[in-house]
Design goal:
Structural class: alpha+beta
Distance between the termini: 74 Å
Helix content: 55-70%
Order of helices and strands: HHHHHHHEEEEEHHHHHHH
Largest sheet: 5 strands, antiparallel
Strand order of the largest sheet: 1-2-3-4-5
Shape: extended
Number of domains: 4
Length: about 500
């Protein structure tokens, strides 16, 4: 039996490792495609790019590992079924559960390792990746200048362009505002076209401009306001080269503490502490706001001197409201109604504004709660996908990269779509974090139980002949029923 277990584990670990790295590679290519504009043309060293890809690959494990478990288990048992190895083992009296037992233990170990990775390694790699990606994005300021938007990343300068040719790096309709003299927008350079490059020592931004002019307002001597002449200077040029001094545009590592408060950079204990602190602060703020509303609106003394005891007495006896109103003169009644309307509108606007703030704080707390549950859903997803892939492979009895890949992708897409939709509901405060983060696993859990049961009982649910025979029987039964009914109807006529 030990040889059988070793054989099954050896057959399973090969596809598991290969599919895991293939899925990570595909997701990594998606990351590169998304941030390709922030990486190319920055003059980054190979070590920096390798470090960024390494940290990014670690962050892709929560997506790659469940899919690798599903695909590898489906391929393993599909190959064993296609090669009649499962049939031989079952004929020898070995049940499917016994064949799966070493892989179940291995999947439990993988799930525990996934939880440890998600709780201890993933926050660290996310922190490194986010901080390094931010540093890379700050490189090469000329690559960060976008069309139609003022770029203020260079100290004392504001640059705007109308268009850009990314193949030649030529920029069009360039406006450069010089604020080095700290006197406002008094010095501006406008050019029809030009290009920018950084010197090798990254000390200057060399800007070559074509067909433009410089405008500068000169400083005027102190005179009377009516005698001001507004002196200025304007220079026209066909070609001009500007050297803008740069500081801090070499790759400098940002302090990681600036990113540490993000929910994806915390482990379970830190998430618990942060969630409790934010929850207590929100509860305190809600109580203070409630007391403020009550004290300033319901029990406020004004010109009509309505005391707290009187209001409480009126609340206990609503019929006395009419008597209280009749005791006022017509002018006092009108003033009271006008003031009450103003106060009600003011309180309503205040409540709406405060509710928006409370909703924002609740959404912030939800992000930490979602990340807390995500530490466990990764491990549980690996466990569920194994119990979907292994029995499904034993049922379809097809190995290789054909049918298993198609079925695995379909199940994973279903899981991912449900998970993304539920997370959106959680973020919008529609449902709590607990059912929202677990609903995709809860939906697929019955599927895993059902497929395991069908595989144990040698079901043929994936055999097309079974469904054809079923519909053939229905067709024969319907024809037989029609033949029995028609003679009776004819005799009645």
């Amino acid at each position: 039996m030990k040889k059988l277990h070793l054989f099954v584990i050896k057959t399973y670990t090969g596809p598991l490792i290969s599919t895991f790295f293939v899925v990570v590679f595909i997701l990594l290519m998606q990351f590169l495609w998304k941030y390709i504009d922030d990486l190319i043309g920055k003059g980054l060293e190979f070590a920096v790019i390798a470090e960024l890809l390494l940290y990014t690959s670690a962050g892709l494990v929560p997506l790659a590992l469940p899919l690798a478990v599903l695909l590898s288990s489906l391929m393993t048992f599909g190959n064993m079924g296609e090669n009649f190895e499962l049939t031989a083992l079952k004929s020898a009296g070995i049940s499917l559960q016994r064949i799966m037992s070493p892989l179940i233990i291995l999947t439990i170990i993988i799930s525990i390792g996934a939880f440890y990775f998600s709780n201890n390694v993933l926050p660290f790699t996310n922190l490194k990746m986010r901080s390094l990606l931010y540093d890379v994005q700050q490189q090469r300021p000329e690559m960060q200048i976008r069309e139609g938007v003022f770029y203020n990343g260079i100290d004392n300068y504001s640059i705007k362009i109308a268009g850009r040719n990314y193949r030649t790096n030529m920029m069009y309709d360039i406006k450069i505002y010089d604020h080095t003299q700290r006197r406002g927008n008094l010095k501006v350079t406008i050019a029809d076209s030009g290009y920018m490059r950084i010197t090798e020592d990254k000390a200057f931004l060399v800007t070559t401009l074509y067909s433009g002019y410089n405008y500068e307002e000169m400083e005027e001597r102190a005179r009377q306001q009516r005698d001001r002449s507004f002196p200025h200077r304007s220079d026209v040029f066909d070609k001009q080269t500007m050297h803008i001094e740069l500081s801090g545009f070499d790759l400098q590592r940002t302090d990681e503490e600036a990113f540490r408060h993000n929910s994806q950079m915390m482990n379970i204990s830190q998430l618990d502490s942060t969630t409790d602190s934010l929850g207590l602060a929100l509860k305190k703020e809600v109580n203070e706001h409630t007391e403020k509303i009550i004290s300033s609106s319901f029990f406020r003394k004004d010109n009509f001197t309505v005391l707290k005891d009187t209001v409480l007495h009126v609340e206990r006896k609503p019929a006395d409201i009419w008597a209280l109103e009749q005791s006022l003169t017509h002018e006092e009644r009108r003033r009271a109604l006008d003031q009450a309307t103003i106060d009600a509108r003011m309180i309503r606007n205040q409540i709406i504004s405060t509710k928006t703030n409370f909703d924002w704080q609740n959404k912030r707390i939800r992000r930490y709660e979602m990340e807390w549950h995500r530490k466990f859903t990764l491990s549980f997803a690996c466990f569920i996908f194994f119990f979907i892939g292994a029995p499904l492979g034993a049922i379809i009895r097809k190995g290789g990269l054909g049918m298993p890949v198609v079925i695995s992708v379909l199940f994973f897409v279903l899981y991912y779509v449900i998970d993304i939709s539920a997370q959106k509901f959680v973020k919008e405060l529609v449902i709590p974090a607990f059912p929202g983060m677990w609903i995709s696993s809860i939906i697929l859990l019955p599927a895993g139980i059902f497929l395991t049961y069908k595989a144990t009982t040698d079901s043929v649910i994936m055999n097309t002949d079974t469904y054809l025979n079923f519909f053939r029987k229905i067709y024969i039964s319907v024809n037989k029923l029609i033949r029995q009914v028609l003679p009776k109807s004819r005799s009645a006529i």
